[in-house]
Amino acid sequence: MKKSPVLLALIVALAATSAPLRAETWTVGMSGGYFPFTFVRSDELQGFEVDFIEAIAAETGDTPEFVTMAFSGLVGALESGRIDTIANQITITPEREAAFVFSQPYVFDGAQVVVKEGNEDTITGVEDLSGKTVAVNLGSNFEELLEGLPNAAEIDIRTYDSNIAQDTALGRVDAFVMDRVSSAQLIQESPLPLALAGAPFSEIRNALPFRDDEEGRALRDRVDAAITTLRDDGTLAEISQKWFGTDITVPE
Fold this sequence. Notes:
This protein has helices at 5-18, 48-60, 74-80, 94-99, 142-147, 164-169, 180-189, 214-232, 235-244; strands spanning 25-30, 33-34, 38-41, 44-46, 63-68, 85-86, 100-102, 107-116, 133-137, 156-160, 175-179, 194-196, 203-206, 209-211.
């Protein structure tokens, strides 16, 4: 029986939509020094972000290739095309949204002041940072958050490539600011005498950034669909429970 042109066109369309997507290899930049999100232990790159990306790749059928570098160089590497995305707790900000397209948020957190143990009674929040030296990681959004505070002009903000926790514990700076989840994990795992100072002072939504071009948007859409599936089937919550004992992938 001869098929009509309309029927043939329908068969072709259905075949195209049901065909599996071609597997891809995409490069994921991370610092490898941001416990417990991305870190190296026994020469193995691991952490929440590693498990998260590998779960996405298992869903899409792709192969992730991890590239580690200084956190301050990650955005430049994405802009220049040396990597395809960044999995290192990248916070969505208006400036970044103007430069990149983002996946849906997959971590909800807050900015946290951390001090040397014993000083949490005198520094109980950002209002007590006037006249103090405060460290932040170079290239992070925490410098911007501090600069937006009413008392920003009275805070000596210092940017670091590394060792902000050590310098705080040694008294070289009065405090550092990082996300609350990482701060709490660091205090729990590290022998350094550190303490949380008050409650988080700003909500943080972290997501994966991609270049704002045709290829970047296509990869973002592919990854975003996988994140939705992983959220719905409970995989995101399981990964979070593994690393944090709680679900940080949903708003509080």
